[in-house]
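Let us begin with a simple case.
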Amino acid sequence: MEELPLGALRVRGWSRGCDLCWRGAKLVLFVTGKCPLYERCPYCTISNWRRNKNLVMVDENPVRKEEDIIREAELISALGAGITGGEPSLVLHKVAHYIELLKDRFGKGFHIHMYTNAWKINESSLKMLIKAGLDEIRFHVWDKRLWKKVKMALDMGFYVGAEMPSIPGKKWIRSLKELASYLDKIDASFMNLNELEFTPSNRKRLLSMGFRPKPDSEVAVLESREAAIDVLRFIEKETSIMGYFCPALQKEYQVRMRWTRRSGNVAREYEIPTDEGTLIYGEVQGPKETLMYLYTEYGGILREEKLLIDAYKFQEIAEEIKDLGLIGRLVEVIPTDNRKVLQVFPLDFVLREKTDE
């Protein structure tokens, strides 16, 4: 069993979909917040503000029109997409339409996979998805009565596997091994195991079930990784399918990789992309006349009684900004359309850092 960066463990190879996730080259298309199984899945990480809502999101951005999806795919130089929810099978006509939209724009090689709990998966819905061009289906199914739908999708030509949370405890581990054996029996391709995570929406229920966070993590559940290793060893020894473990930390890494792909394409003239995939710039406030002086001397953008300026230039003239009695700071933001602020570095902090150099 190979040890990968960030603790990702895999058995026998690497699927196309996992490769795109790892590189941040996958568009995440959230097609609905509705799902009939929220009460049966106490570990579900979907945020409360999305649950049972009829909304569409692409990565971290709301979708108001179809062009928003294409635009985001272009901004992150996406090579594929993952369709998720809620439960996508509840809105299959919408899913099929989005698949066709992406395939028409980026070609048949644009890899698209869909996550589903199999709720409305049947021969008719699978035919619709085949016609649209869906490449891969990742089933999230504990109920053995639904496993026949995995085989149905496989028999109809889809690349098929399971994506499940790695839940500590004998009964959960036993169920995962039984599912892995079934996947092997029908010649399915893979099982992906996700490290169980605490989120604001599931924290209370997970704690009531006896789960606790890892001491070195804010979100990962204690012993979830060990449970995954147990199942992966079984997969390696007893099956021929691919097995893969995605740690909680890797989810953050994937988001950062996607930001990195996006930041260079959306950076405004005063924003500098960072190694973390964020954007950083200088912001100066003060009298209009003084700001106009700095603008004339050093450039930037004047906006709402602020001068927005290249971060490197801001650092160069930090002492002058202080001498002029202006308020200054470096601002680090997420490279999404709404530019959510991550960190702020006051002028005095910047001056201290310069002195330390």
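The second case is a distinct protein. As before, the sequence precedes its structure tokens.
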Amino acid sequence: MDSSVELSRRSQKPVTRVGIPARSWLTVILCGMYAIFYLDRVNISQSASFIQKEFALSNIELGLIFSAFSWSYLAGQFSGGWLAYRFGGRRLLFICAIIVGIGTMSSGLVGGFLTLFAARLAVGIGEGPAFPSATHAMRNWYPTRLFGWIQGVTHSFARLGGAVAPPLVASIILLDGWRLSFYVCGALALVWGVIWLLFYRDDPFEHRLLTAAEAAELEVPRPRNKKGKTPFLALIRRIWPATLVEFCYGWTLWVFSSWLPLYFMNHHHQDLKRSAIFSGLLIGGGMVGDTVGGLVTDKLLIRTGNLRLARCGVMFVGMLGGGCLMLPTLFMSDLYWVVPLLALSFFCVELVVAPMWAVCMDITPLYAGIATSLMTLGFGLSGIVSPIVFGWLIDLSGDWNVPFITAVVILFIGAALVWFIRPDIPLVIKPSDGESVN
């Protein structure tokens, strides 16, 4: 866009010069979404032992319940970036919050396997488009120097939701049963949706709290071309290595987020309270890893100017370190060693998140949401396969270590695949393929 047009556009917008910056408020609200949505995603893992007992489910059936979320989540991720590009993140994320809230609350009303499977499908429908849409929303509001940071801090709050879930849900279960936990978690999503609709604007220059300093760093959002051709093939060619790495990352994340409470209860013979505490500590390690990954990738970029080193280097260390730290826990029974090692393993795995999501913003600013949708197809697919395979391996072998061995191998494969990702080469779209942008 011509610079004179951009300056004219900015001069027409009211820009505040005092008070808390709009971007600070937006960061808080986005962090809230990631925490609440992740809480609604994983709260079922803490209720799993009660649900399994009440409905007489096998481990494979329980794995199917865990994976139900991912079937619809996968479809939603594929469409989320495109829908945000066409209609804007404001409306789409509000709709997502309503669906997540209703789906989560419905999980407390179920009467058996089929209705619970359907309720989890509904949660997946709402959450699938959410994170790609949030990335699209971030692209307009944050400058390049903060891409890694904003992805890291928001995903760290996703892990905060995962860390809070075990003790919070356990406390509610002890208070009034497992169904109440779904009602409480679902209500939080509905409240967040209203706050988002009232605060967010797709064009930051339309926001009354935008400061002059913030405006100076931002590009004017390009108008959405609702009739233009979306260059899906060109995007797929650039994003497929990230999709494979995201599958490897997602496989391990689903192991941690779905099965940890049952792992501690069945393999290490802990009660509900202790398994909740241990699970929360492990997810807390991932929360720190998200923030650190975002800070490190941005600092490396500023210091070296090497985009590939800043993004791929951090991802490689995270995948390799996660596998190496998980490996010795397969030969230990002392929880004073197992818990810290698994927490450090999850910390390393979560280092991958911020640079991975920033890669999509690096490669194609205009189509960042769509690129993210394509990348997270790997995560959605792993969420379908991983819980089912985990339950099948446990039923087949009776050994809770076997699924963790599989996770170690997949992490090492992911580390090798990282080097096929090229964030340092911007995507150039030919006019015949769609809009001509870098």
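Confidence is low (pLDDT under 50) at residues 1-12, 434-438. Residues 20-217+235-420 form a domain with the Growth Hormone; Chain: A; fold (CATH 1.20.1250.20).
Keep these points in mind for the review questions at the end of the chapter.
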